[in-house]
Amino acid sequence: MKTRNTLARSLGLLITVACANQLAIAAPPTRPSPEAVFLTGWLHVEDLTMADVVVTVEVNGVVRTGSVKENGRFDIVLPSDAEVLLRFEKPGHLPKEVTVDTRNVNDGGFADQRIRHIKFAVVLNLERHMAGLTYGGPVGSIAFDAGGGCLAVAHDRTIVPEKRQAIMVF
């Protein structure tokens, strides 16, 4: 079990999604524009395979879906002034959503100082361990404070009963 957990932590994924002029996927060695925000994340799943993981990226209403590689790491380049919804899905696991708001990324003089690079991890839990519960909304949000541009991160672990199908009446 210890080896399995260690292996899971070392896995990464690369999202192969691109949205013209709004979203680029790349490792963050260089900054494509002064307003860009780099996200680097690690996805962890119980069964150690990323073959059927789907990541959906919605940037300002434009939705793109990508398949993932087996290494568990993903890198995304986001534009400034964007509202982004990241959704992580895998069969047999509860989906998770994370919101990213880059509207204030350049406040406080950060644009001239350094690359805005955010690192985070997402763990997908097996449905069978959740006893019919699901997340009430996005499990996390990443944003930048208005006026200062400082990173603001919030977690929400609220779980609610899963919606059931309506009963058929004959």
Give the secondary structure arrangement, pairings included.
Blueprint: H1 2-10, E1 37-45, E2 54-59, E3 62-67, E4 73-78, E5 83-89, E6 96-101, E7 116-124, E8 133-135, E9 140-144, E10 151-155, E11 159-161
Parallel strand pairs: 1-7, 6-9
Antiparallel strand pairs: 1-4, 2-3, 2-5, 5-6, 8-11, 9-10
Summarize the structure in words.
- This protein is mainly β.
- It has a single domain (2-161), classed as Immunoglobulins (Immunoglobulin-like, Sandwich), CATH 2.60.40.
- It is 5% helix and 38% strand.
- It has one helix at 2-10; strands at residues 37-45, 54-59, 62-67, 73-78, 83-89, 96-101, 116-124, 133-135, 140-144, 151-155, 159-161.
- The strands form 3 sheets. It has a 6-stranded mixed beta sheet with strand order 3-2-5-6-9-10, with no helix packed on it.
- Strand 9 (140-144) and strand 10 form a beta hairpin.
- The protein is globular, with a radius of gyration of 17 Å.
- The N and C termini lie far apart (50 Å).
Short description:
This protein is 5% helix and 38% strand.
> What class do helices, strands and sheet pairing give?
mainly beta
| Rg of Cα set | 17 Å
Task: Give the spatial strand order of the biggest sheet.
Answer: 3-2-5-6-9-10
CATH architecture descriptor name: Sandwich
